[in-house]
Amino acid sequence: MDFNSTESWVFINTSFPILPVIAPNRSCMEAYLQRLAHLDEGLFSDFYGLWIALMIINSLIFLAGMVLNTVALYVFCFRTKHKTTSVIYTINLAVTDLLVNLSLPTRILLYYSGGACLTCSYMHIFSYFVNMYCSILFLTCICVDRYLAIVQVEASRRWRNSSVAKCVCVSVWLLAIVVTYSILSTAFQPTGCCLSKLLFLTITEFFLPLIIIVVFTLRIMWALADRRLMQQSRERRRRAVQLLTTVLIIFTVCFTPFHVRQVVVYFHPDMPHHVIVYHLTVTLSSLNSCMDPVVYCFVTANFQATMRHLFRRAEPEQTSGDIISMQHSSKASGDTANAIANNVIMMTKIPTSPQRDSLGKNLAVLAALLTRTESVASAAVDSSPGAELGSTSPFSKLVKHPRLLCDSEPDMT
């Protein structure tokens, strides 16, 4: 495209930098896409090193995001038995992140072609911004859901169910599509009257969710600090705070720079280095698709346990001889041995699929308990009660087959 021609120019007020487009014999839509493509042409011609770096970064984001979000979808869809409201919102968030990653090849192709592919430009713009706004809204839904679950427990029971969550998800997808279409159709208008509308859409799609997340996060932290909230365990409180803090950090880091730049361009269209800022902020918002899997770790209690179970290496089975070699020379009474054995038996009555992280702590305590009890049993082997314990008690079976306690697969809740 020759920008030195004598053809007339039209300036379009959009959230993107004000650049000239050729008006004659071109539709508004094609002119708008030509102007967007000029951003890539300017990057390619003026900042070649950054152009190469962005191609590499987007390729890495594409690969990492595809792997992480595919695994996350597998875990939540096939390894999670109870589809709670948080899980439903998280599944949709993983889908949007996966679609963002699928749109990255078109951006890489745009970088490679120097902005010459207008079809790739439109496909990338529409799909990318639909999924970006879906990510923003689903992160907001997760935060609101945690607020209802922790602060408004009784009042929110009728709202926190799978049917309502599915309706909310459908509404979010429709809203994101409508808003993105409104932004693009407004940008296609060759008039200068659309600035206020675009500014309103930007505030609605980003700054309003940001305010909701910040206010609800502070409200939840204030509620969790109340010691009278006895029904919330310490571990659950800690995980809730970690989830909300992670959502706020990801939301702020990934999406704030891009939308702040949008507002600045509204009022200062001649902002210097707008091409660099545009590409850097768009790439940073794409990084959200790789950071959201951090949120997934706090949505269900044993997501991390399932991930470890999927990727763990096979461990060698421990034999009874290995246990006997760890005995100490301590002595205790037969009653103490029976009491310890009963404690071990009670631990085996824990549900077969406990939280994996809690299981790790229990197994560490159990290992020490088994060692001590073995010593007690060996010290009392000559006595009648001890002989009965060693031959018939469930404890002797646990000593011979210790892996019975840890071979169960985690159960997502």
From TrEMBL:
GO terms for biological process: phospholipase C-activating G protein-coupled receptor signaling pathway; positive regulation of Rho protein signal transduction. Pfam families: 7tm_1. The lineage of its organism: Eukaryota, Metazoa, Chordata, Craniata, Vertebrata. Belongs to the G-protein coupled receptor 1 family. It is a multi-pass membrane protein. One of its GO terms (cellular component) is plasma membrane. The chain crosses the membrane at residues 48-75, 87-105, 125-144, 164-184, 199-222, 243-264, 276-303. This is Putative G-protein coupled receptor 20. Keywords: G-protein coupled receptor, Glycoprotein, Membrane, Receptor, Transducer, Transmembrane, Transmembrane helix. PROSITE patterns: G_PROTEIN_RECEP_F1_1, G_PROTEIN_RECEP_F1_2. It comes from Scophthalmus maximus. It is found in: Membrane.
